[in-house]
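Margin note from the TA: students keep mixing up input and output lines. Inputs are the sequences; the output is the structure of the whole complex. Example:
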Amino acid sequence: MSAETNQLEERAYTRSRRIRTVLTYVLLTLWGLIVLFPFYWMVLTSIKSYGSYNAEYVPQFYAAEPTMQNYVDAFTAVPLARYFLNTVIFTSVTTALALVVIVLAAFAFSRLEFRGKNLLFTAFLSLMMIPNELVIITNFVTITDWGLRNTFLGLILPSVTSVFYIYLLKESFDQIPDELYRAAKVDGASDFTYLMRVMVPICRPTIVTVLLLKVIECWNSYVWPRLITDDQLYFLVSNGIQEIRENGFGRENIPAMMAAVVVISIPLIVLFLIFRKKIMEGVSQGGVKG
Amino acid sequence: MPSRSLKGWLYLIPAIAFLGVFVVYPLFDVFVYSFEEGYNSASQTFYGTGIYNYSYVLRDPYFMQALKNTFILVIVTVPLSTAIALLISVALSSIKKLQELFQTVYFLPYVTNTLAVGLVFMILFQKTPYTEGFVNQLIHLFGGPSVDFIDGPYWAKMTVMCIYTIWIVMPFKILVLTSALASVNPDYYKAAKVDGANEWRIFTRITLPVISPMIFYLIITGFIGAFKAYSDVVAIFGTNLNSAGMNTIVGYVYDMLYGNGGGYPSYASAAALILFAIVLTITTINLLVRRKGVSA
Amino acid sequence: MKIVLEHITKRYPNRDKKRGGEVVAVDDFHLTIPDGKLIGLLGPSGCGKSTTLNMICGLESPTEGHIYFGEEDVTDLSPELRGVGMVFQSYALYPHMTVRQNIMFPLENRKKDERLPKEEMLRKAEEAARLVQIENLLDRKPSEMSGGQQQRVAIARALVKEPRVLLLDEPLSNLDARLRLSTREEIRRIQRETGITTVFVTHDQEEAMSISDEIVVMEAGIIRQKGHPQDIYDEPANLFVAKFLGTPPINVFEARAEAGRVYIGDACVMRAPDVADGPLTVGVRPEGFVPCADGPLACELVAVERMGRDTSIVARHRAHERGQIRTIVGSDVRFDATADEVRFSFKPAKTHLFDAATGERIHADATPVTGNGAAHA
């Protein structure tokens, strides 16, 4: 008899567990839909023709006659290609410069001995607490005074340094055993050769992470470019999209706007899908959006 | 050894130069600006020093509006997003099938352009003479009246703002919490099961305490992030935030600096320092509460 | 290449900053290493042997003194200009490079005008690999190899630039027991083949004795003795060297000299007419004990361990430093293994007298005493 009750209990337990599993998947799928829906809507709207979109008082979940016309408009009616190119230039130059600065600084802190090193490193770390909003005012004035408004230089210079990445890479450099450095000395490698031929290749995973995070940061930057450019020739995609929204196709051509939004979103999504693991790892190590 | 000492500094020159010009110098400068009264950006002159800039900012109705908006945003989104993220992370770590797929999908908002997706949210929520918009359609479905979330009443605009902010901050929180959950030693769970604890007890007595440092970290970074909200607001309501009544403190700083009402770096500096003081205070309080909580 | 270390001293600032002052790692080290020899620097950890090696290498510079390679003063020369090859304890192979790239690395670092053409570098790398018998592993990464193979790569990398001096820091310590044996023969072979003056550092006396032409025993930054391994074993200059060399270790007794006789406890174990009266220390190698019924030293028998070729007798005596004597005798030596007591006499060549205070060796003619040691009374 007790065996029978046991069996009943067992069955009830299995059933409640199954129900919970189903509920779990329902919840996860629901959130998945909430995340994906804006993306779906943006692609959907971008392939609706201007006429049919405006005719839908009740928005439709499908496009009856999909069209690519909006994408053509996005590149012809507004200088989207220009914004795109600007962003590519800005992102690649800033990231490249940042990597040089970061690698050199991390190397000095990790490998070289010099007077005042610990004090300087502490000073660097404390700079991590300074919010960008506090320094951006002076930077705006500085760049304006230097006559660098509406130039790439003005866009790039203040965006180069990130103390956090120096810290991240230094930690990674610190993992390399001391003996390797001494071996390289005996092998006749200079400090710089050692850095480039031994440390950088060994720490490539961390450097790639830094690179990816920096690219994402640059691609999405909005505040600084907005302050420092008012000439459309130097707009980045973020400012471009804002410009399109306010003065672009005319307020009502939402499908064309969405086409532009799709175009500027794709590069990072592709990048993310390729380097998913690395990016998520890097972000969980301490990247904070904002 | 002096040559070796020199070498270290040599490698640091680029970093020091960039940080010096664009972080350290501005840090001091912003204080100076904030006390210079009547600064004229055209002639770069001022006629006195004092706390007038602060009192001006604090009496500016636009600033008070921005302060109010920011506080509402912080108070609503930080607890809500953390709670939802915790729920989703727990659900996510309890499954095996499709886990990676869900994780990937959930992270997508992190890598999207805030301005671009904000535009999509605007379209989903807006109501124009031509269309009700998707969200209003949903509301109709449940029998409610339609609202214009973008140009309509204050509470409606605030709602969109909060929803979008939560949507944007979620990837980071889910990521941090799932990795925290994954790092809990499974032996704890086994031991608790052997000791006869039910799942709810295991969650509240083991899982939560173990991952509480991470939750705390998320709350602090959440506070700081929400206080600095700006581009997501612009994404939905456009650049003219003051007239939309949706400005934030950071938005106020930028508007004072540049744009339609711009050209007042002194007011901008004062506002930025007020923001910094608020963030610092709240972080400190958080840390104190935390310390007390730990020792108790 | 002859190496001369001329009164080398190395001081470091004390790590404990509160105490301040300096730590002397190497103290007035004076040594000449003849050309083409294999020299072992032997000592316990912290004795300054690695610091000495690093100074020969050029990774550290002496606070005082000079280092000569042949006639050339290399004291202020950086490692890459000295023409030294070094094998590190952990091998320090570059993990992201293949074996070939690792071996070629030193050649590639040469200045433009001294750099060899690429084919020449490849040829030299292969030649070095052949010398250490890893020519079939050239495309592997270090992580895909065993410890012994990594060791060979490290040696090849050190040899590829045809150094004047080869330095090895604890070359065998990361290998398991079996590999250790074959690797040390391998090192010996390579050194013979190349004829490069080689210095290696070890804390393992067996390792040092088995392959070195000469060993230098160090303690606390000072050379305690140098010479041919067998000579040092047979004629230790002081108690430290006597204790450091040999397994099982030498047996040390508290003793005293009285009227030309050496007493352990009440037993007169030696006649040593030239030794002044007073306390001294007697060291007896394990193989220096002879069990015999009328031996002077009576000990409590603890255990008899038969190991085939020899037998190890474990006995107890109060005057012994550790209380327990361990001896090695031939398996053909007869004695009563069931008794409670065993009596020993000492072989004079295996018995050394040391000053009780300084530990310095007392050279004196000593002859064994047979018959009951207490007989004098």
